[in-house]
Amino acid sequence: MKHVLLVPIDFSENAWIAACYAAELAKKYDWNIQLLHVYQTFSRLLATQEFKDAVSVHNIAAAEQDMEAFNTRFRATYPDIDCTAACMEGNLNDIVLALIEANPIKFLVMGTKGASGLVNVALGSNTYELIRHSPIGVLAVPASAKSFKLEKVGFLTNFKENDVEILKDFIGRTSPSLQVALLHVNEVNKKPKNEDILFWQERLMKDIGINELTYHDYEMVNRLDVNEPIPYAVERLVEEEAVDLLLVSYTRKSFFRNLFSRSLPKTIANKLTIPTYFRKDD
């Protein structure tokens, strides 16, 4: 059975960009695509059951019509990709987590939207909830990602033990032939020792089987507890290393949790200009 990329969509152009990125990823690794649209149940307390049923019928018809148009466009653009499409009523997080548990899904691929944040409620706050709870990675694709390239990934690291497992999981789901750049943000005058960096590089290459691994750091001007400069530092690292995809781990105690918690939508939309893969670490 082929592995699947699950792509939640809201039929916007940003969702289309995410679906196209997923399709190129699927072509690269011979995966299938599952398009998913989740719509909400109408539940106003004062409405009659008859009215609720009528709204539900309308929502189902509208969703299926939009999905048919989206899927037709997708199949015309990517005729060689094995793609299925489904509309489901309910809670996006619950449905996605259930699908992950029951199917061989490699990644979630979700779109982001320019300066106004993640696509909408369904792909906004829920994206963060999925990052927090999904047992597999969530790949956020910005609207600017209109071409596909995946040769070099950048991994934000804080030299913690969980970094090994996070990177191993990603490489295991893609390919050890990818170039990997370790990216690290330093506090002022707290640059890691060269021997420690070399030890970490050698360990990752040995444990994960990566063919090419480099290291690049950036020293902060301000304290790490000042949030605003951190996205700038990450952006600089991404630009200087010219990575195609950014890899970020999420843990309750992670330094990067502070970067990508409450300000996640704003940070992704305004600061990160390349596809970014978030992976929860238990």
From TrEMBL:
Residues 4-142 form the UspA domain. Transmembrane segments: none annotated. Pfam families: Usp. Belongs to the universal stress protein A family. This is UspA domain-containing protein. It comes from Sphingobacterium zhuxiongii. The lineage of its organism: Bacteria, Pseudomonadati, Bacteroidota, Sphingobacteriia, Sphingobacteriales.
